[in-house]
Design goal:
Elements (H helix, E strand, L loop, with lengths): L1 E5 L2 E5 L16 H9 L3 E2 L3 H6 L11 H17 L12 E6 L6 H13 L5 E6 L7 H4 L8 H6 L10 E3 L4 E4 L8 H5 L2 H13 L3 E6 L8 H6 L4 E7 L5 H10 L6 E6 L17
Parallel strand pairs: 3-6, 4-8, 4-9, 5-7, 5-8, 9-10
Antiparallel strand pairs: 1-2, 6-7
Helix pairs in contact: 3-4
Keywords: ATP-binding, Kinase, Nucleotide-binding, Transferase, Tyrosine-protein kinase
EC number: 2.7.10.2
GO cellular component, one term: plasma membrane
């Protein structure tokens, strides 16, 4: 992982691996079954299967991926918790995006949320805001559910009605919900601004990670990124062109706190093992 400070923008480069997986139904143990019976918003994640597919879990032990995300989350958490003159507006709202599809942004968003959930005094809400092509629930092995779009479309529907609790104690999930042809306008609406303000301020110990659409493909990403305190842009190693990266960064140049994740790398100069590198 590389960290460089240029003006007000911080860039963080991280090498991680991505795995393509096939998903099936989860198998809940007795404790999870009881929890689900008493709470209709409770969902059981098959952590063993996620770990087998290379995803980060609390039971996964020490791995290169776990170490990658321990490093990448530190500056994000530090800025989210900043106070006084260094406080960032909506600093606890972190959006994960990319220039183009297929660069691994959902993989990074889910693993970042999982890593943050391991903190002792923080809860994390993982929001699937890629409303045109939602994939967070698929990655986690869950079926589609009502979520963000439903709350924006129905004033009578509370966010608490669609947030899912999980068997990861500090992890909550807000699905994308139903698709809508006016998704860009909904994400740029006053209702969305009010929702983000509520999410950012209601729980002081909560970090919110948004999986966003790609910047160069959809207009929804711009409506969303502009309202976030911190931006994480995923760059696919040896695939994403320099032009695409520069154009994506140009489109979000008004954002002061931008981090880069260098994803799908198989080696990093200066390291003896597969994983990450850190440079000042």
């Amino acid at each position: 992982m590389s960290s460089k400070d240029s003006g007000k923008q911080e860039s963080t480069i991280l090498g991680v691996a991505e795995t393509s997986v096939a998903y099936g139904p989860d198998v809940a143990d007795s404790a999870d079954t009881l929890a689900a019976a008493s709470n209709p918003q409770y969902r059981t994640l098959n952590l063993a299967r996620l770990a087998e597919q290379g995803m980060l879990t609390q039971e996964g032990g020490r791995s290169s991926v776990a170490e990658d995300f321990r490093i990448i989350k530190r500056p994000l958490l530090r800025q989210a918790r900043a106070s006084g003159a260094e406080a960032i507006r909506h600093g606890n709202l972190i959006v994960v995006t990319s220039a183009m599809p297929g660069e691994g942004k959902t993989y990074c968003a889910v693993n970042l949320a999982m890593s943050i959930a391991m903190e002792m005094d923080i809860t994390v809400l993982l929001v699937d805001a890629d409303v045109a092509r939602p994939s967070v629930l698929k990655v986690l092995g869950l079926p589609p559910e009502p979520g963000l779009m439903d709350v924006l479309l129905d004033p009578q529907l509370a966010m608490a009605d669609v947030i899912l609790k999980t068997n990861v104690a500090n992890l909550r999930i807000l699905p994308a919900g139903r698709s809508n042809k006016h998704a860009t306008e909904l994400l740029a609406s006053r209702a969305m601004s009010r929702l983000l303000a509520e999410i950012a301020s209601r729980y002081s110990d909560r970090i919110v990670v948004f999986d966003s659409p790609p910047l160069l493909i959809t207009s929804e990403a711009h409506a969303l990124v502009g309202q976030m305190g911190q931006v994480v842009m995923v760059v696919e190693a040896e695939t994403t062109t320099q032009h695409a990266v520069k154009e994506a960064l140009r489109q979000i140049e008004a954002c002061e706190h931008i981090h880069l994740i260098y994803n799908k790398t198989k080696s990093f100069p200066g390291n003896d093992y597969y994983g990450y590198g850190y440079y000042d």
